[in-house]
């Protein structure tokens, strides 16, 4: 118990430290002087690098890699894994308790899930995902940030390791417009936004929201993989990216909450909108399963079923 508390404290200190280090360069999303088109000059040497994220995923160019097997998610079904939700002034970030991990999926070792946060545009009308697929940008994107377990939460080491971080990216799409306040996990999560309208505010999550419930409906075996970077300064090239093929589907009213409730600073500052980096130069992308093989084995299964039942 004691060592748990100590390591939790150390983790908090480290995360805070890493954030103030990246806040050293005054970057932003909304001003011409510091928006993402300036980052390669104001936040060199990494934001001007050669494996920068996000990218457009050209599905026809993704090569099949049989090593990209299923992930093992530990405690993603826990209803007490989400700690607090915070307005950082740049995003909405949710802390994840220790003991939540991800492994498999072609990753070289186990990674600890530290936090997730979101990127969005301006409601359902203006898309704000970071990754795009065949040129299509989605309304929102969820990023689960994981750090190599062997680095024990030392974020300095993680951002200096070409595979120090593993990010899981989920594209978010709107449900038909006659559906509201759905799904329940996202209704619960977004209900906290009214309590963190200003930068620096945070509240403890008390609803029993599991990570699995937020990812409901997504096939976790069907994904794209590439080597990239953090999508905010300092843009360290330390991230193994996984972007899932399926989207999370959320009702429009909940998507619209993000762009209408939280602000980038105090109560009279602008609403937090268009919080994403635009796509960077193309990088080689692999995929976990060949659609051709899926449909082939499906039709084989259908055929054998037909023969068997006849
Ligand atoms: C960023 O600022 C530049 C001017 O520096 C402007 O041309 C561009 O449209 C802005 N981009 C975004 C996404 O706001
Ligand atoms: C990025 O900027 C740094 C510092 O200005 C420079 O040393 C480096 O060569 C640049 N990298 C690329 C890929 O242009
Ligand atoms: C995709 O592949 C085509 C043909 O091989 C190539 O011309 C194109 O540049 C590739 N696009 C990307 C984004 O990698
Ligand atoms: C798959 O993993 C094996 C064993 O680690 C390795 O030799 C092989 O190169 C990998 N294949 C691909 C396509 O990365
Ligand atoms: C989570 O899944 C594990 C493994 O399948 C299972 O043992 C555990 O009981 C589940 N926990 C909850 C809270 O559902
Ligand atoms: C966002 O959309 C609203 C209307 O839905 C509009 O009033 C506002 O100006 C937009 N904000 C930006 C920064 O484009
Ligand atoms: C992280 O690791 C580096 C290199 O081993 C070390 O210098 C630094 O003190 C570590 N940071 C913390 C807070 O443990
Ligand atoms: C929404 O509309 C679709 C078709 O227009 C209908 O099938 C569905 O039942 C409606 N859903 C709700 C929640 O009203
Ligand atoms: C949403 O919150 C309510 C109230 O705390 C709880 O009963 C319910 O289980 C939660 N559902 C999900 C999916 O988070
Ligand atoms: C969040 O705000 C609502 C309404 O403004 C309030 O009733 C509720 O107690 C607050 N919750 C927390 C956790 O601060
Ligand atoms: C990522 O980098 C590693 C190490 O260089 C390499 O083995 C792997 O094939 C790369 N993955 C992709 C998807 O390019
Ligand atoms: C990937 O997602 C697209 C769009 O959501 C869907 O149409 C397609 O069936 C999915 N591909 C596979 C192999 O599941
Ligand atoms: Zn992100």
Write the layout of secondary structure elements.
Layout: H1 2-22, H2 39-42, E1 56-57, E2 63-64, E3 71-74, E4 82-87, E5 92-96, E6 101-104, E7 111-120, E8 132-133, E9 136-137, E10 140-148, H3 155-160, E11 165-174, H4 184-190, E12 202-204, H5 211-214, E13 223-228, E14 239-244, E15 248-250, H6 252-261, E16 286-287, H7 291-309
Parallel strand pairs: 1-8, 2-16, 11-14, 11-15
Antiparallel strand pairs: 3-6, 4-5, 4-12, 5-7, 6-7, 7-10, 8-9, 10-11, 13-14, 13-16
This protein binds 2-acetamido-2-deoxy-beta-D-glucopyranose (NAG) (12 copies) and zinc ion (ZN).
The site of one 2-acetamido-2-deoxy-beta-D-glucopyranose has 7 residues, from helix 4.
CATH topology group: Carbonic Anhydrase II
Q: How many E strands?
A: 16
Report how far apart the termini are.
Answer: 62 Å
Average pLDDT rating: 90
| CATH superfamily placement | Alpha carbonic anhydrase
Bound molecules: 2-acetamido-2-deoxy-beta-D-glucopyranose, zinc ion
Largest sheet: 13 strands, mixed
Radius of gyration: 20 Å
SSE topology string: HHEEEEEEEEEEHEHEHEEEHEH
Percent helix = 10-25%
SS element count, helices: 7
The unreliable regions are 1-23, 292-298, 305-310
Count of discrete domains: 1
**What oligomeric state best describes the polypeptide chains here?**
single chain
**Helix-strand category:** alpha+beta
The top level CATH class name:
Alpha Beta
Per CATH, which architecture? Answer: Roll
Describe the model.
There is one protein chain. The protein has helices spanning 2-22, 39-42, 155-160, 184-190, 211-214, 252-261, 291-309; strands spanning 56-57, 63-64, 71-74, 82-87, 92-96, 101-104, 111-120, 132-133, 136-137, 140-148, 165-174, 202-204, 223-228, 239-244, 248-250, 286-287. With 310 residues, it is α+β, with helices and mostly antiparallel strands. The chain has one domain (2-288): Carbonic Anhydrase II. Strands 2, 3, 4, 5, 6, 7, 10, 11, 12, 13, 14, 15 and 16 form a 13-stranded mixed beta sheet that branches. Residues 1-23, 292-298 and 305-310 have low confidence and may be disordered. Zinc ion is lined by residues 117, 119, 143, 231.
